[in-house]
Amino acid sequence: MQHDVVIIGGSYAGMAAALQLLRARKKVLVIDAGQRRNRFASHSHGFLGQDGRDPAEIASSARAQLEAYPSLTWVQGRAEAVAGQVDDFTVTTTDGQSYASRRILLATGVADQLPAITGLAERWGQSVFHCPYCHGYELDQGRIGIVATGAVSAHQAELLTEWGEVTLLLNGAFELADDVRHTLEGRGVAIEHTPIGRIEGVADVVLVDGRVLSFAGLFTAPRCAPSSGVAAAAGCALEDGPMGTQIVTDAENKTSVRGIFACGDVARAPHSVSLAVGHGAMAGIQVHRSLVWPDAS
Ligand SMILES: Cc1cc2nc3c(=O)[nH]c(=O)nc-3n(C[C@H](O)[C@H](O)[C@H](O)COP(=O)(O)OP(=O)(O)OC[C@H]3O[C@@H](n4cnc5c(N)ncnc54)[C@H](O)[C@@H]3O)c2cc1C
Question: CB atoms < 10 A from the CB of 27, how many?
Fold first, then answer.
């Protein structure tokens, strides 16, 4: 069977796109590997109407609503490659299945490249975060540590002073220029040069000299990269943005390959559930328009 659209990635962005397309009675196949970016967090904040809810529950309620539409097919699995051209694409999955489709929508999200510090990865999404709008409020204006990853961390430290008393843990990640230091000091940011040995407890940073700095929570700014190589393998252009590598799209969610669209974290920054949902909804509409008016796509 030929589908109108294969959506690769069935999380917030992909499902928001699917909803628009299903409501236009298109035949939609979603292929999803089930590895949402926020799967490490037990609460999601900042998404209107869903504030504080378990992010897995937000995704499962959305999925349940999609399942009510008869033209949806859902495949649990990982897409490996996209071949062909507009109106005649074939998507293959790692288990050897293949699916035909007129359009492709990439909603594969990104993967975070976390600093290699003992104890950090296990606390990701629980007491180590990247987005203050998502997790800053709950720290109750307490002490916040910024685990530096590069020059962007100075910006993160400055912003986080809106949410608490900030210490920038340089950890050898970058050299602080004098003007940046003055700005940070002017915002009341403490600067720690001693490298980090490990993280323990809720957010206790053990420095290599044995001192322990205790925080209500830690923030870091990981680089991101597409969590799937499908876009690059299909020939879609990629670009480096402030948060990492993303797929190049235009204002209509089109990639550089005709008939392939992209949405969500993998195609825009900054990143959040609401922004992924909005971008996905727009992508669904744009894919539908390209089916109605193919000459314009
Ligand atoms: C720790 C943490 C906490 C966060 N907390 C919040 C919060 O409180 N509030 C908020 O608004 N945002 C939060 N975010 C950001 C939020 O998670 C992302 O903005 C959002 O998940 C992006 O949605 P998406 O659909 O673009 O991608 P994702 O949710 O990452 O979903 C991508 C989907 O595509 C699938 N996929 C990837 N490659 C393939 C493939 N080849 N084949 C098939 N499927 C594939 C993945 O398995 C996944 O299911 C948080 C992020 C992190 C890391």
Answer: 18
DSSP-assigned states of every residue in 140-191 = TT-EEEEE--STHHHHHHHHHTTTSEEEEE-TTS-PPPHHHHHHHHHTT-EE
Question: Quick one: tokens of 43?
Answer: 């609460």
Handedness of CA 68, 70, 76, 79 (dihedral sign): negative
Ligand 1 atom with minimal separation from the 78 CA = 42
**115-220: same fold as 2-112+223-296?**
yes
pLDDT at 198 over 90: yes
CATH code of the domain occupying 115-220: 3.50.50.60
Six token digits for residue 174:
């970058």
For ligand 1, atom 19: residue with the closest CA: 272
For ligand 1, atom 41: residue with the closest CA: 79
What is the pTM (predicted TM-score) of this model?
0.96
Ligand 1 centroid distance, CA of 55 (Å): 10
pLDDT at 176: 94
Atom 15 (ligand 1) nearest CA? 272
- Range 262-282 burial, b when 16+ CB lie within 10 A, else e: bbbbbbbeebbbebbbbbbbb
> Using only C-alpha atoms, what is the Rg of the chain?
21
Q: How is domain 2-112+223-296 classified at the architecture level of CATH? A: 3-Layer(bba) Sandwich (3.50)
Residue spans per domain, the chain: 2-112+223-296, 115-220
- Give residue-wise pLDDT tens across range 88-107: 999 999 999 999 999 999 99
Q: How far is CA 77 from the centre of its chain?
A: 19
* pLDDT single digits (tens) 155-191: 999 999 999 999 999 999 999 999 999 999 999 999 9
> 284 near 20, Cβ under 8 Å?
yes
